[in-house]
Design a protein that fits this description.
Residues 15-131 form the Response regulatory domain. It holds the Pfam family GerE. Residues 151-216 form the HTH luxR-type domain. Keywords: DNA-binding, Phosphoprotein. The chain is an alpha/beta fold. It folds into two domains: 14-147, Rossmann fold, CATH 3.40.50; 152-222, Winged helix-like DNA-binding domain superfamily/Winged helix DNA-binding domain (Arc Repressor Mutant, subunit A, Orthogonal Bundle). It contains ten helices and six strands; from the N terminus they run E-H-E-H-E-H-E-H-E-H-E-H-H-H-H-H. It has a six-stranded parallel β-sheet with strand order 2-1-3-4-5-6, sandwiched between helices. Helix 4 links the parallel strand 4 and strand 5.
């Protein structure tokens, strides 16, 4: 995962909001992400409260969220953001792999968990993936999440088709990718995803991917996280 996924030249830019309490970090991210013509950094915030106001005003596609900030931390901000703007994806970008931070960010609704030493290509890939609804996790964060993941209580058995969709989610497929792979419509895939999340008592695709890995539906070694 060292190069951004190739994008069609006609693809719309991904609108990104940067949230970090250090101005030099935000400046560095702007410079790195500015190398990708299909990423448009539309704003910045220095803490969680500012982030919520900026998301409401600017409607970004993806928010790059630091976790350790004054006024309002990134986990609290992510939880509030996802309640108010469920279609905006959050990438947790931090310097720690402490378990309570990793688990807290994913439980709050972050689609991806990255470290600040990630290359610009890796971060750009994560942004494009998030815009498509795909999961990207730092490998060690993924291992810790899988080990500690509890998940919800399964209410009904998954159908064979839902099991296949769950496997493909774990392998990083977007709804469009799954639709093409299974030769069905995206609307049908959305229905499968909604039903399997309900049956598993889960809230997000990231949690579904972790469930698949934890329960052997997919292999961590074979998953592009």
């Amino acid at each position: 995962m060292t190069h951004p996924t190739a994008q069609p030249s006609t693809a719309p830019s991904v609108r990104v909001l940067l949230v970090d309490d250090h101005a030099v970090v935000r400046q560095g991210l702007r410079l790195f992400l500015g190398l990708d013509p299909l990423i448009d950094v539309i704003g910045e915030a220095a803490n969680g409260e500012e982030a919520l106001a900026q998301v409401a005003a600017l409607q970004p596609d993806v928010v790059i969220m630091d976790l350790m900030m004054p006024v309002m931390d990134g986990i609290t901000a992510t939880r509030a953001l996802k309640r108010a703007h469920p279609d905006t994806e959050v990438i947790a970008l931090t310097s720690t792999l402490e378990e309570y931070k990793v688990n807290g960010a994913i439980e709050a609704g972050a689609i991806s968990y990255m470290l600040k030493d990630a290359s610009s290509d890796t971060l750009a890939d994560a942004i494009h993936a998030a815009a498509r609804g795909e999961v990207r996790l730092h490998p060690e964060a993924a291992r810790r999440l899988v080990r500690d993941f509890r998940g919800g209580e399964m209410r009904e058995s998954l159908t064979p088709k839902e099991t296949i969709v769950l496997q493909l989610i774990a392998h990083g497929y977007s709804n469009r990718d799954i639709a093409a792979d299974q030769n069905v419509s995206e609307a049908t895939v959305k229905t499968h995803v909604s039903r399997l999340l309900g049956k598993l008592g889960l809230d997000s695709r990231t949690q579904a991917a972790l469930y698949a890995l934890k329960h052997g539906v997919a292999s961590l070694d074979g998953v592009d996280l």
